[in-house]
Amino acid sequence: MKQTLHKLPAPATGARPLGRNRDFLIAGTARFVATAGMGAVVVSVMLHLQNAAAAGETPVAGPWLVAAYLLCSALPLVLLAPWAGRLADTMDSRTLATASSAVSAAAVAGMGLGMQYLENYLPVLFAMTFLLDAAQSVASPTWQALLPRIVGEDRTPRAMGTMQATLMIAGMAGPAAGGLLSGWGGTGLVFTVASGCYVAMGLGALLIRTRRGTAAERAGQAKPALLDGLRLIRRDSLVWALVLGAMFFIVVGEATNVLEVFLARNELGATEIQYGLLSAAFGLGMAAGAAMAGRIRTPRVRLRVLLAAMTGASACLVLTGMVPSVELLFAAYTGTGVACGVLNACFGAIAILRIPESGRGQAMAIVGGMTRAVSIGALALGGLLGALVPVRVSFVLTGAVGALVALALTAYVLPRFGREDSAANTPAAAVAAADAALPAKAASEPLLAGAAATVSGRQQEAVADEVPDFLEQASAELRAVKPLVAAQQRLEGADDLPDGQVAVAR
């Protein structure tokens, strides 16, 4: 019996476009539906809490209720990040994605039932919110780590940009749908539809053929330590520098979220509709920026564009604090959204491609937990700024500080990493190059054995689609593999394989 084990770079140009990649289309659709459902839930809960507080039906004031709800939503991503990431790297991705979808659907249904039938529904609401976001803290790194397997390493940046743009559009459609459903059928209808959205995501997870973390793949591997994700991030100097820079940038940038309503309504006299459309302008800008960033082809350009986007977002914050009219505020918000979309897509592509494949779930979960933690601190900073200085000055000040952070980060990373043009400079490729330095026989035997174990999870697909690390091999390693092509010609039946593929007789 013979198995296709490795495609050499020459035929890799025939890889399926994203629009024809069945698993990518299913994953994008499933995550779009679930994200829209999540947005509908958030809007419905916020409206319900506001109305209940206004009617005097709650024991505490409305702002405290909203703060408690948002805290219950944010804490799981921060507190559970190490465990969620380890699950994403040590369990079958299909099992995790399906189970997290089922738990999310049950949590949303529990929220709706509690709010509709219980007089004191707040404990149930907060508990189900925590459960929902705990499930999503597992689902997020699972989907992120699976994406390179679905599309291949070389298509990962574009796939990430497309996926982020898709989720941003869903994030705008969800709240609008939630408001409409709440007006048509009340809270019960919103939560029923949202629960169905998570069921749909679970069905999508079952339909995806590409898998990660199967039992065959995990065989013989040591279980990672709880904080291995943090160690992987710190091991790569570029990723660690970008994470720290992003955290500082988030603190100063997201502090303005608390102040934007006062700038738009009090300073510029925006109507309620205009204020609502500002979020849409920002979201559309983010979607466009993420889609454009996905077309960047080289690491060197991607890094430079990321740094430029960070500076551009800071400049837009300064302009936001100086605009004289609502119309120009829309332009500033759209520009900020484009810059943030580019920043997110470039950062995600750089991080996930530089982190070893086996630890991507842990690393991305840690990154998500760290950025969510500083987002919570940014809200407190925004309230402090609003109390101490005028709103316009707050925007100008945060933009100026953000620009300083961007310039400091640029001064650090460009001299060290600004000339990297290929995966050969990444840590994963460095390991591959070290392996290639071994004698051909010693280097090829473990390579083939590991690949054979992985093939068992998905017989009908070439392993180049299942094991993205093969696409990261340095050219030195390919020289060690090429002698196998000649040997292949002496195998019975080898002539029916496509050019450039290696067969192993069993």
Structural description of this entry:
The chain is an all-alpha fold and 506 residues long. It has 20 helices and two strands. It has a two-stranded antiparallel sheet with strand order 1-2. Helix 1 packs antiparallel against helix 2 and helix 3 packs across helix 5. The longest helix is centred in the middle third of the chain and has 52 residues, at 156-207.
Break the fold down into its secondary structure elements and pairings:
Layout: E1 2-7, H1 22-54, H2 62-79, H3 81-90, H4 93-117, H5 122-151, H6 156-207, H7 215-218, H8 228-235, H9 237-254, H10 260-267, H11 272-293, H12 299-320, H13 326-354, H14 360-388, H15 391-417, H16 427-436, H17 440-455, H18 463-466, H19 475-481, H20 483-488, E2 501-505
Antiparallel strand pairs: 1-2
Helix pairs in contact: 1-2, 1-6, 2-5, 2-14, 3-5, 3-14, 4-5, 4-6, 5-14, 6-11, 6-13, 8-14, 9-14, 9-15, 11-13, 12-13, 12-15, 16-19
Short description:
The chain has 506 residues and is mainly α. Helix content is 75%, strand content 2%. It has a two-stranded antiparallel sheet.
